[in-house]
């Protein structure tokens, strides 16, 4: 009973922490998907999905993910060979989670330091990222677009030079335009409408209600008589 009460008190504290402040409404997943970077025609789109997610602390965010396959000619070998490169591109409207943006900025500031040095990459339109190669043929990149849009890119099959070359023709203009018109309305009742969008299979699109919970009554009932929460 004591451990249960401790858990309830912790959940109550988290709920009150979320409800105490205003939460910014993140952008609709469909809007974020439509604002993802424009890629060259030879990038084969494999999937394109978006959704609202509730973080552990209760704030909603919007995540959009696209996966691509690219046929790339490897001229480092003689004769040259064609290899397949896969790209996973994830964009997130962090909404009220300012600590997420702070983490990304720290990564940008620390590029080139440490044992696993990261390198900066200029995506154009003012979008700057850092990438590293934790394993052969694997590239992981983090970037920021303004104060609320975070990007994560994962590439399989390309080296660092090829990764940079692949993204030179990618156009981030639509994402920059979205950053300037993100919704600023706030939610104070702890109830959210969350959406799931599958651009390539619209039949899977749906929405549902979710939110934080008030455990105050459970706390009162779990307390010994005469005690206060």
Describe the 3D structure.
This protein is α+β, with helices and mostly antiparallel strands. The chain has one domain. It has six helices and eleven strands. The protein has a nine-stranded antiparallel beta sheet, with helices on both faces. Strand 7 (138-145) and strand 8 form a beta hairpin. Helix 1 (2-20) runs antiparallel to helix 6 (216-222). It is globular, with a radius of gyration of 22 Å. Mean pLDDT is 80; it is low at 1-20 and 213-229.
Offer a few descriptive terms.
229 residues; two-stranded antiparallel sheet; 6 helices; 26% helix; globular
Average of pLDDT:
80
Strand content: 35-45%
Q: Pairing-aware structural class of the strands and helices?
A: alpha+beta
- The strands making up the biggest β-sheet line up spatially as 5-6-7-8-4-3-2-10-11
- Low-pLDDT stretches are 1-20, 213-229
Distance between the termini: 14 Å
Radius of gyration: 22 Å
What is the helix content? 25-40%
C-alpha geometry:
globular
**Biggest sheet record:** 9 strands, antiparallel
The total of helices stands at 6
Q: How many domains, in number, for the residues?
A: 1
Tally of extended strands? 11
The helix/strand series, from N terminus to C terminus, equals: HEHEEEHEEEEHHEEEH
């Amino acid at each position: 009973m004591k451990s249960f009460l401790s858990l309830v008190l912790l959940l109550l504290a988290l709920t009150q922490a979320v409800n105490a402040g205003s939460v910014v409404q993140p952008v609709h997943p469909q809007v974020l998907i439509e604002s993802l970077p424009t890629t060259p025609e030879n990038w084969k789109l494999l999937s394109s999905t978006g959704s609202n997610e509730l973080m552990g602390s209760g704030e909603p965010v919007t995540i959009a993910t696209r996966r691509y396959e690219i046929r790339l000619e490897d001229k480092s070998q003689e004769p040259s060979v064609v290899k397949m490169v896969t790209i996973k591109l994830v964009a997130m409207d962090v909404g009220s989670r300012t600590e997420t943006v702070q983490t990304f900025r720290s990564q940008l500031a620390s590029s080139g330091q440490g044992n696993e040095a990261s390198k900066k990459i200029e995506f154009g339109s003012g979008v700057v990222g850092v990438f590293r190669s934790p394993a052969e043929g694997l590239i992981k990149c983090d970037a920021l677009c303004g104060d609320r849009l975070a990007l994560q890119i994962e590439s399989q099959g390309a080296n660092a030079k090829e990764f940079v070359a692949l993204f030179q023709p990618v156009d981030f203009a639509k994402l920059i335009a979205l950053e300037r018109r993100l919704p600023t309305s706030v939610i104070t009742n702890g109830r959210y409408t969350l959406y799931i969008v599958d651009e390539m299979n619209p039949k899977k699109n749906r929405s549902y209600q979710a939110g934080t919970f008030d455990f105050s009554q459970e706390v009162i009932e779990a307390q010994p008589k005469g005690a206060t929460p």
